[in-house]
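Write out the bound-state structure for acetoacetyl-coenzyme A.
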Amino acid sequence: MTFETILLDKQEGVGLITLNRPDALNALNSKLLQELGEALLALDADAEIGAIVVTGSEKAFAAGADIKEMSSRSFAEVLKMDMFAEINNVFARVRKPVIAAVSGYALGGGCEIAMACDFIIAAENAKFGQPEIKLGVIPGIGGSQRLTRLVGKSKAMDMMLTGRMMDASEAERSGLVSRVLPTEDMLDSAMEVASSIADLSAPSVALAKEATNRALETTLAEGLLFERRAFHSLFATEDQKEGMNAFIEKRQPQFKNC
Ligand code: CAA
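---
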């Protein structure tokens, strides 16, 4: 596959997608969003890949949707194209874990793409924000919903209504990111985290992701039942026997993803 606006690489069971419009701080134009979606689905279907990392440059993960591309669009146009529906649909379809490795600015749609990933690892220089309100609009790739679920109503309202940025330390305190790492090591560390997940049993990884996502979608009783049934179903895998026997025999498991 060849792309204009992203780079695609594979290392040790991990698919690495690098947003690559450096002159525009990786602003998300239609081409980039289309290519990001294609790359995510291709990696999800690739039997050699167990986890995916999405990253940008050291200065910017992505500075938002491309303001220059969308500034002259009318309501009728953006409604007709259902702008930004497709990339949300893609993230909903990807079964493998997707980690956002964020350095620099993750603003507007950039913050939203990071939040659409399963978790965010941030560099110390990362800055998150939903500044759309300053442009006369609001987030359109899920910011009002995902940020509120991640950091709670008060901080989400503060971010959405003022458009201010949050640094990495505040993002970690607020639960927006799972860890903060030195900027120069962040991507290598995120790749190691992804590689360690790719080494695990793929059925258990997929069900762990599904069960965790259920927590945001359903009642506690339904979520607990879903989790229990998923847990029970993993006893049908060879990997469950291998994982538990390896623990008892004090050795590393050799998972076969079945
Ligand atoms: N869209 C298009 N181009 C952008 C862009 C964006 N979101 N963000 C930055 N760029 C471009 C700039 O226009 C500039 O291009 P030129 O050199 O051709 O002028 C280049 O990237 C470098 O940007 P700056 O000169 O502004 O860099 P800086 O270091 O001075 O500032 C910044 C960095 C604070 C991130 C600033 O670029 C900025 O505020 N960007 C816009 C952030 C924003 O408002 N994002 C939300 C977009 S709307 C959205 O995302 C909707 C949604 O929910 C989906």
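---
The mean pLDDT is 98.
The beta strands are 6-11, 14-19, 51-55, 60-62, 98-102, 105-107, 119-123, 127-129, 165-167, 179-181.
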